[in-house]
Specification:
The protein has 345 residues and is an alpha/beta fold. The chain has two domains: 174 residues, Rossmann fold (3-Layer(aba) Sandwich); 142 residues, Glycogen Phosphorylase B (Rossmann fold, 3-Layer(aba) Sandwich), CATH 3.40.50. The radius of gyration is 20 Å and the shape is globular.
Length: 345
């Protein structure tokens, strides 16, 4: 977990922390979590090794510098790994390079599927760091069949080396509350281009013609000061308890993302009894099944129409969502990861 920067890498961090908690609860192998100086405690209950030789990184630019330094001077880091049988890099980038069997998690191949959203330097970095780590790994874990197909087809990896294991949900945190639903839509996500905020804002304008009191609450860092259309409230980075409260009170989760390797927020919302309207794109339909109302993320009128229908009649989606979310647990995710480790060992 050396490349972890708390609060800065989105769903990959949720996955890494959920996996360590799951392994701590149900794992039967002898595990250690190698954590960076910026994230002590990230091992989630596993025995931790705080790797002080890795440069402290609290931002994405600092992360790049730390990874570069680790790749250029791997000796002190490699000595930390002496005696291990297998190393798993849940944050994709295999730093430092090791002469050990490695497993790598590839969360998506967005830089290949949507290259226009990335600068030339970003594409080059992902090609070397992400794709290179995956090609050198003895096994690759992905969060969905959508990503598995991409990895096999675009990276040319043998299918038998690529394992699709869905993420879990922390059901102790994400569960229905006692508060009444309120008149706002919720979209948790940083304003990265693929998150598609612009189309959602257009849809909100259409929705407010019939529902002028309707608001849209945005969470996640990086939103700045707008401009935003009327009805948008930016909460920015929120704590775990506040996020759960928003899921429990929102009239609907709207998830218009153009690209996801899995789709964690819709399942978290479902576990909290919140109806979901989501994009009909990439891995999202695979994650939500028939428990969400789906729309075309490029069509604001379709987004507005589907959300309006959910607001009119949410009961079926609430029940279906609770049932769907219950099938995703970090314990099951951990067991399936351990099966991959054991097959290699």
């Amino acid at each position: 977990m050396l490349t972890l920067v708390p609060g800065e890498i989105g769903g990959a961090e949720t996955y890494a922390r959920g996996l360590t908690r799951g392994l701590a609860a149900v794992g039967s192998l002898d595990y250690s979590a190698f954590v960076p100086p910026a994230a002590p405690g990230a091992g989630g209950g596993l025995p931790e090794v705080l790797v002080i030789e890795y440069r402290r990184a609290r931002s994405l630019p600092q992360r790049f510098v730390a990874m570069t330094a680790a790749a250029l001077r791997p000796g002190p880091l490699r000595r930390r790994y002496a005696g291990l049988d297998l190393v798993h890099h849940p944050l994709t980038i295999a730093v430092p390079p090791l002469a050990l069997p490695t497993v790598v998690t590839v969360h998506d191949l967005q830089h290949l599927d949507l290259p226009h959203l990335f600068s030339r330097s970003e594409r080059l970095f992902r090609r070397r760091a992400h794709e290179g780590s995956a090609r050198r790994a003895i096994a690759v874990i992905v969060p969905s069949q959508f990503v598995r197909r991409s990895v096999v087809e675009q990276l040319g990896l043998p299918p038998e080396r690529v394992f699709a294991i869905p993420h879990g949900i922390d059901h102790e945190r994400f569960r229905p509350g006692t508060e009444s639903r309120e008149g706002f839509l919720l979209y948790p996500g940083r304003p990265w281009p693929h998150k598609n905020h612009a189309r959602l804002f257009e849809a909100l304008v259409l929705l407010r013609r019939e529902r002028p009191e309707l608001e849209l609450v945005l969470t996640g860092g990086g939103h700045g000061r707008g401009p935003f259309p009327d009805g948008v409230r930016v909460r920015g980075l929120v704590g775990p308890a506040e996020l759960v409260s928003l899921y429990q009170r929102a009239a609907c989760l709207v998830f218009p993302s153009r690209y996801e390797g899995f789709g964690q927020p819709p399942l978290e919302a479902m576990a909290c009894g919140c109806p979901v309207a989501a994009s009909r794109a990439t891995a999202i339909p695979e994650a939500v099944g028939d428990a969400a109302a789906l729309f075309d993320p490029e069509d604001p009128e379709d987004i507005a129409a589907v959300v309006s229908a959910v607001l009119e009649s949410p009961a079926r989606l609430v029940a279906a969502g609770l049932a769907r979310a219950s099938a995703f647990t970090w314990a099951e995710t951990a067991r399936r990861h351990e099966a991959v480790y054991s097959s290699i060992l």
